[in-house]
Amino acid sequence: MTPAPRFRVWRQDTIPDVFKGLPPELLRAGSCVSLNWTMKQKDAICLVLVTVPGLKVARSIARAVLEARLAACVNIVPHVESHYWWQGKIESGTELLMILKTTTPKLPQLERIVLANHPYETPEFIAVRINRANKAYSDWLLESVAAPGKSTRNK
């Protein structure tokens, strides 16, 4: 059996509209688009997804990671209906979803704090690298997770 290709190739005149206007790094020799492209930035921005059983836990984790400057922002989304496999059975329940905005270098510390403050036996901690964000937001995020007194902005 032949393994699946790592990226899809389109002729230049058949690139889907959704990919038009992407950065030149995505174009290989001007003739195809790679779907495996990732941002090669030292402080790449990440979204971290964490589900929790209730608001008290979510607020406690949010406060801990913000005070440690491991995240710039934490969104708490209520009433997430989860369906999942657990101990050989399909289960379901209502949870809250936390969306944490951080940088790649902060991920190991962030994961330690989340896991240390989480009541689940197997907490969800999923990090997704973002390959594009507007400059003002990126600058704010980097500044927010920097140590106090250490600006990340160019002067």
Q: How would you explain this protein's 3D organization?
A:
This protein has 155 residues and is an alpha+beta fold. It has helices spanning 55-67, 107-116, 135-145, and strands at residues 27-28, 32-33, 45-52, 73-86, 89-103, 126-129. The protein folds into 2 domains: 1-37, no CATH class; 45-145, Alpha-Beta Plaits. The protein contains 3 helices and 6 strands, in the order E-E-E-H-E-E-H-E-H. The strands form 2 sheets. A 4-stranded antiparallel sheet has the order 4-5-3-6. Strands 1-2 form a two-stranded antiparallel ribbon. A hairpin with a 3-residue loop joins strand 1 (27-28) and strand 2 (32-33). The termini are far apart.
Question: Major β-sheet, in short?
Answer: 4 strands, antiparallel
So what's the CATH class of the largest domain? Alpha Beta
Output mean pLDDT. 80
Order of helices and strands: EEEHEEHEH
CATH topology of the largest domain: Alpha-Beta Plaits
Instruction: Indicate the percent of residues in helices.
Output: 10-25%
